[in-house]
Amino acid sequence: MxxxxxxxxxxxxxxxxxxxxKKLKADKPELLESVSYTTRSPREGEENGVHYNxxxxxxxxxxKDEDGFLEWAKVHGNYxxxxxKFVESQLESGAYxxxxxxxxxxxxxxxxxAEKANVxxxxxxxxxxxxxxxxxxxxxTQDSLNLRLENAKKELQRKDDYDYCVVNDDLDRxxxxxxxxxxxxxx
Length: 187
Ligand code: ADP
Ligand code: 5GP
Description:
Helix content is about 45%, strand content about 25%. By secondary structure, the chain is α/β, with parallel strands linked by helices.
């Protein structure tokens, strides 16, 4: 388990984390993203096995009972978890692994991997901008939007608790900063 590198990206929903990760993966193909398991429904354009492994609650809980997750959490009313087998085997073979986690999963990673987990928090310029982005994405119901905003306010209080914090104000500027941080971790 000691060989590879671990980068965790954490951000309140709607900050632009998926947008930044997509750019990062295109520029850094050596970064392998762990595909999480979730019980939430796929959004338009999301593919099973690519964006997530979409599973039923029964399947998720069975996997949890079989100790199949490195970490799992209930986020915005749905279960999300990181599969153990994939991560362990990839780390042994020296892979550079990228994780997209909420703060609970990030804290589990920090307890488990300590300084081996390099955590980058992505913050929105403000809660108002975050709300506009979430609304603009057009993927959430009013209830889900409200829940994500409530959670965002709590998650934002953690922005200085990790290794790096990048503010996603202007996308190109934020991306340039993010890639500099990632290159520093990988070198
Ligand atoms: P997350 O993965 O953090 O939930 P997304 O990547 O889906 O967020 O981004 C939320 C919305 O905000 C999307 O519609 C995206 O196109 C937009 N967005 C992302 N970054 C920026 C930015 N820097 N400026 C303006 N809009 C952005
Ligand atoms: P979304 O539903 O917007 O794709 O993701 C909601 C939240 O769940 C995001 O903060 C995302 O980072 C987080 N998430 C995605 N996969 C996992 C996972 O495997 N474990 C944990 N703890 N959080 C995850």
